[in-house]
Structure formats: structure tokens, C-alpha cells
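Box 3.1. Reading complex inputs
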Amino acid sequence: DAGVIQSPRHEVTEMGQEVTLRCKPISGHNSLFWYRQTMMRGLELLIYFNNNVPIDDSGMPEDRFSAKMPNASFSTLKIQPSEPRDSAVYFCASSLPVEGPETFFGQGTRLTVV
Amino acid sequence: AQTVTQSQPEMSVQEAETVTLSCTYDTSESDYYLFWYKQPPSRQMILVIRQEAYKQQNATENRFSVNFQKAAKSFSLKISDSQLGDAAMYFCAYLNRDDKIIFGKGTRLHILP
């Protein structure tokens, strides 16, 4: 398996534009997580899906952020409109708890909003 | 490419005892950071301890300390006087100066009363 795949790897956008980050979890994994990493706040959980259903979205900073998981092999994190303070590295991770505790992280998307 | 390896998917320790979680990494860089994160059932990530590669002194935070062996590329976490609240997933992570961060797959720590 190629692991958790995120795209794009880098995104630079202007303030006010819509940004969509994509994630393909490892095939068969039923838990998916979106995290945001900044040096100031470390790694923050934004949202957690289980079997495509959002279980906990309390970490989503505000209404400008939305996440979907239309099927087991794809998830998106959308920011509309984007702001400079959204600049961070966004990670997607997946796991299959019944098989073991390991969580597999994607390589992240570095978002820069100018 | 950098990699982070946590070779112990699960570990158990008796309450009040000491446990060490292992982490090795591979990099050709000389300047970087290493972290241990704790993930409780809420799935939130809590920074436990941080080590800067240029500092030879091992970082310590209360009951948590690391054994940083730069030449061996090893970064183990020692938890002393284990408490029930320490039960969680623990992730080792590597961060370079370009803000590229890589995580290990995690170690689940069980605390036995």
C-alpha cells in the first residue's frame, strides 16, 4: 500500500480564496483524522471520521472550515474563505483500530495563505 | 528521506513503575527537532516533550524524560512513576528546519493498576 496520500503537497493561495485539501486513507482503514500543525500550537485535531461519519469536529476552528468523507477512500478539508492565519501544515491520518493501534500519517499539505 | 520508526505497537507497565518507549529515526540533516506527543482517547495530540538536536542535554518534563542519542539516531521516552492517566498512544515525531514533520506510527501504552 502506498500509505496515506495527501494532495497537494504545497498550496499557496491568496486571502479570501477557497482551498481544498485532499486525502486518500490506506485501503481498508475505517478511521480518518485531519490535524493542523503549527509551531505555536503544535498538532491540533480538527476532525475525526469513523466509517465515513464525522465523530468529533470540535476542533474545527470556525465555520470557514468544513470536512467531508463521501466514501471510504476519500476525504476533503475545505477552507472558505482562507485567511493568512490558516497557514500551517495539514495532516491526514488513518487507522484500523481492530487490527492494531498504529496510526498512519500522510506527508502533509503545507498551506500558505498570502 | 527522513523516517521515524516506533518498533513497539503496544506496551504495558505496572502503575508506579518506569517504562521506556523507543523511537529511531533516519536523516542526513544535522539540525532538527524531535517530539513526543501523547494522544488520549479524545484523539487530541498533546505535546509531551521536545528536544533540539543541537542540544546534547536530554530534555526533561517532570516525570517524562528522553534519552537522545544523536549518533545512533535514537530518541526514547522514559516515563517514571507511571500513572493511570499516562495510558494513551504516544507518537514520536521529527521536524526539520524547513518545517517538514514526520510521525512514527505510535505506541499504545497500557497502565496496569
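In summary: Chain A is about 0% helix and 55% strand.
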